Amino acid sequence: MSEKKASLSIDGATDSIELPIYTGTIGPDVIDVGQLTGKGYFTYDPGFVSTAACESAAPPLSRAARPPGPTVADPVLRESPTA
Predict the structure, then answer these.
(1) What is the per-residue pLDDT across 24-49, written as a single tens digit (0 to 9) for each?
(2) Any bridge partners for residue 69, and if so which?
(3) What per-residue string of b and e applies to 34-66 under the rule 16 or more CB within 10 Å gives b?
(4) Do the beta carbons of residue 29 and residue 46 sit within 8 Å?
(5) How many whole angstroms separate alpha carbon 46 and alpha carbon 53?
(6) Between 41 and 1, the higher pLDDT residue
(7) DSSP type of residue 19
(8) In this predicted model, what pLDDT tens digit does every residue of 59-83 receive, in sequence order?
(9) Which of 20, 42, 50, 54 is the most buried (most CB within 10 A)?
(10) Helical H runs in the chain?
(11) Residues 6 or more apart from 9 whose CB is under 8 A from it?
(12) With contact defined as beta carbons under 8 Å apart, do 22 and 13 qualify?
């Protein structure tokens, strides 16, 4: 369990919400907002800029070890279709 905590206060709510803060192996510390849905809230990150996609202890696979096929790093998957 995390020792560091963030306290979230919401206008109109009587109590603040304590959220754990974790330190990753790279990048800035992160705030675990997982319990917000149980309190009737959800987070919004429109550009998926400050959202962690998952937690994993497994090292990333090298390109040679991955199964064949496109990845999100391939240009064809990154480009937006034009109308």
Answers:
(1) 888 888 899 989 999 999 888 887 77
(2) none
(3) eeeeeeeeeeeeeeeeeeeeeeeeeeeeeeeee
(4) no
(5) 14
(6) 41
(7) E
(8) 766 666 666 666 666 555 555 555 5
(9) 20
(10) 75-78
(11) 16, 17
(12) no
> How far, in Å, CA of 5 to CA of 16, rounded?
12
The token pair at 58 is: 């497994």
The residue to which tokens 């199964």 are assigned: 67
Furthest-apart CA pair in the chain: how many Å? 54
What gap in Å lies between CA 61 and CA 75, rounded to an integer? 19
Residue type, 82: T
72 burial (CB, 10 Å; 0-12 / 13-18 / 19+) is: exposed
